[in-house]
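Quiz preparation item.
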């Protein structure tokens, strides 16, 4: 019996060795770029042998997605076939002579694009603004408690090397779980902002969102109201620190952070000022509809497609607002989409997000506590209550929180509330991340080396200094 086991072991090792040999030329990382016309997206595939079989994962670095599962991998005699079910995509290619290039096509949503893969991994884009040590200020890793939520949050506190007390700000990230640097597409905008402010005499506390990185809590069940309690806990922490002026603590919120900041300020009486970076001045529902129209239009989608999607989204949002029960709401949405999509081809359904797979994925988001709250949120009554100085900024190429209507909404609400201490400014040719851009499209974010506009950094810094004199 022992001899049989040894023979079987040798046989298995031999088979694994043969598999490794037959797949040797494909193992490792391969990268390429999809030319979509309006944008070019980097694609990376990683191949390895697991338990004798060929395994693969996919990265889309420009979209911040890594480790996407490749459900089916077939490789034989130089021909490669990949099935990435989670994104409804497939790749078919052929290893060219020399074993360093795979010539193929990527297919998704009924369309196909040439995709040439070269041997090697993805090279991290250049980010010249990212601060590097040694810093001319103090930097400490900190933790503080949100007693109301029963969680501990982690962050970074940067302080000027000054003996006298200094003003301070708390940074508030945008939607979705983000780390303390608000890191996205290899950019770290909050780190860049914190560095600039601290070099100019202002302490900065930035922290990981609850449930992200080193912070405790559950991101999935939280709403903007919950995040406001995290910010309030951050303010309390700052007030307990040496060399921080307790009545000169302000809040800087980006995107959703721009709605959390005034919520926090209205729950306290000690916030010195607010800076709203691409903050909302219209309802969550209106922001989402405007965002959809702007992005699809800028991407070159035809008007009929855009109107189809807007009509459907408006109805879906209405169904969510009217039906509080998630199961009932999901059932009604499925019924509506099925009727709306009747007569459309699979490709047409895919382009509108109406395929069964895409709909089921989206339903989890649409019925989440966060989405429900955001959808119905109206910033006007909140902004009307804000009494401290406010600086509201946005970029003219922001396709996610449209500058004109949202800045106008913020200004009107502050005026109606009797607040006369505010500054509203739109910067030309800046996108949602406050980068100088050409289109404002999300696909452009990773291609831009600039992390955050120097003009906006200076404008914010000078404005804060003017408020605390």
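Solution:
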């Amino acid at each position: 019996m022992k001899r049989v086991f040894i023979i079987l072991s040798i046989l298995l090792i031999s088979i694994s060795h043969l598999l490794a040999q037959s797949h040797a030329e494909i193992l490792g990382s391969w990268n390429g770029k999809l030319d979509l016309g309006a944008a070019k997206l980097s694609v990376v595939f990683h191949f390895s042998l697991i338990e004798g079989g060929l395994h693969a994962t996919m990265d889309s670095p420009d979209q911040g997605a890594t480790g996407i599962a490749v459900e089916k991998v077939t490789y034989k005699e130089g021909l490669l076939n990949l099935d990435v079910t989670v994104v409804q995509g497939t790749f078919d290619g052929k290893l060219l002579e020399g074993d360093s290039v795979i010539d193929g096509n990527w297919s998704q949503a009924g369309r196909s694009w040439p995709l040439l893969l070269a041997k090697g991994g993805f090279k991290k884009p250049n980010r010249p603004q990212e601060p590097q040590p040694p810093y001319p200020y103090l930097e400490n890793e900190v933790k503080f408690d949100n007693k109301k939520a029963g969680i501990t949050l982690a962050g970074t506190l940067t302080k000027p090397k000054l003996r006298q007390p200094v003003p301070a700000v708390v940074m508030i990230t945008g939607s979705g779980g983000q780390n303390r640097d608000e890191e996205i597409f290899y950019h770290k905008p909050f780190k860049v902002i914190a560095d600039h402010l601290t070099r100019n005499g202002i302490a900065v506390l930035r922290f990981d969102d609850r449930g992200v990185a080193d912070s405790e809590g559950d991101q999935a069940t939280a709403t903007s109201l919950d995040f406001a309690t995290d910010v309030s806990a951050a303010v309390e922490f700052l007030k307990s620190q040496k060399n921080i002026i307790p009545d000169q603590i302000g809040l800087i919120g980006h995107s959703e952070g721009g709605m959390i900041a005034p919520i926090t300020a209205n729950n306290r009486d000690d916030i010195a000022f607010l800076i709203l970076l691409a903050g909302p001045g219209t309802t969550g529902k209106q922001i989402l509809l405007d965002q959809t129209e702007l992005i699809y239009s800028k991407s070159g989608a035809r008007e009929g497609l855009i109107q189809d999607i807007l009509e459907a989204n408006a109805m879906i949002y209405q169904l969510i607002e009217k039906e509080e029960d998630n199961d009932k709401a999901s059932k009604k949405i499925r019924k509506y989409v099925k009727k709306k999509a009747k007569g459309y081809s699979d490709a047409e359904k895919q382009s509108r997000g109406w395929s069964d797979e895409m709909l089921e994925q989206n339903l989890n988001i649409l019925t989440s506590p966060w989405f429900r709250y955001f959808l119905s949120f109206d910033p006007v009554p909140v902004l009307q209550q804000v009494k401290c100085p406010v600086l509201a900024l946005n970029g003219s190429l922001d396709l996610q929180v449209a500058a004109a209507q949202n800045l106008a909404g913020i200004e009107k609400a502050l005026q109606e509330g009797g607040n006369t201490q505010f500054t509203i400014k739109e910067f030309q040719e800046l996108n949602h991340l406050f980068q100088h851009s050409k289109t404002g499209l999300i696909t452009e974010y990773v291609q831009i080396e600039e992390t955050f506009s120097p003009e906006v950094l200076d404008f914010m810094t000078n404005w804060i200094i003017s408020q605390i004199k």
